[in-house]
Design a protein that fits this description.
By secondary structure, the protein is an alpha+beta fold. It is globular. The strands form 2 sheets. A 5-stranded mixed beta sheet has the order 2-1-6-7-8, with helices on one face. It has one domain: SspB-like (SH3 type barrels, Roll), CATH 2.30.30. Strand 7, helix 4 and strand 8 form a beta-alpha-beta unit. InterPro entries: SspB (IPR007481), SspB-like_sf (IPR036760). This is Stringent starvation protein B. Pfam families: SspB.
Length: about 160
């Protein structure tokens, strides 16, 4: 019973989401230097996600966005971030809570994180689905697949509570 009090697995998830928040803050303040770029995968139907309806229709479960050359109005709050991206030459604002994230990668330095989600916000203890992330808009799937194998994904399963 005592080991239920701490839930280290949830603490680790929260801390690692803080890494993403800090990386985004640096990008908002200073831009992305060199070849740095971010792949951010999130649940499109998660609470607090605000994206255009046609994107939810196209990506009903999960979507990956890329922050590299063309992004605007990147704002980071404690629990979410917002950014404007171009889809078919139309700028669209997106708001994504950090709790909705399922993956983050910066392939330029071979860094990646994978997060777990369930409907009730708890971290699952079962096997992972496809660890490579979700679909990307505007035909970026191939680029995401090319970079996916170059970085190391940190899996949190070793820290999770086993039932």
């Amino acid at each position: 019973m005592a080991d239920d009090l701490f839930r280290y697995d949830l603490m680790v998830e929260t801390a690692l989401r803080g890494v993403v928040r800090d990386a985004l803050r640096r990008a908002a303040e200073r831009g992305l230097p060199g070849n740095h770029h971010f792949y951010i995968t999130f649940k499109t139907s998660a609470p607090g996600v605000h994206i255009p309806a046609y994107l939810v229709e196209r990506y009903p479960d999960e979507m990956t966005i890329v922050l590299q050359f063309q992004f605007w109005d990147l704002e980071i709050l404690e629990d979410q971030f917002s950014v404007t991206l171009s889809f078919n030459d139309i700028r669209e604002p997106l708001t994504i809570p950090f709790e909705a994230l399922t993956g983050f990668a910066d392939p330029s330095v071979q860094f990646g994180l994978q997060f777990q989600q369930t409907a009730d916000g708890e971290t699952p203890t079962g096997d992972d689905d496809d660890p490579s992330g979700g679909d990307t808009p505007d035909g970026e799937d191939e680029a995401a697949d090319d970079d996916a194998g170059t970085g190391e994904v940190v899996s949190l399963d070793q820290f999770r509570k086993k039932k």
